[in-house]
Design a protein that fits this description.
The chain has one helix spanning about 1-45. The chain is mainly α. The protein starts with a helix and ends with a helix. The relative contact order is 0.07. The model has no long low-confidence stretch (mean pLDDT about 95).
Length: about 50
């Protein structure tokens, strides 16, 4: 019984870590897109 509980806790922890890493990956993608867009608009605004 303890083994089942231990495996369940480990699965929940690893699943939570996996979701956290996936969320961080999406945040990184969004941040890079915003950085590129702001750099483009900044260079365009400077030349006008």
């Amino acid at each position: 019984m303890w083994l089942v509980i231990l495996l369940l806790i480990l699965a929940l922890l690893l699943g939570g870590v996996g979701l956290f890493v996936e969320a961080l990956r999406w945040v990184l993608v969004i941040a890079v897109i915003l950085l590129i867009l702001s750099a483009i608009t900044g260079f365009r605004g400077r030349r006008l």
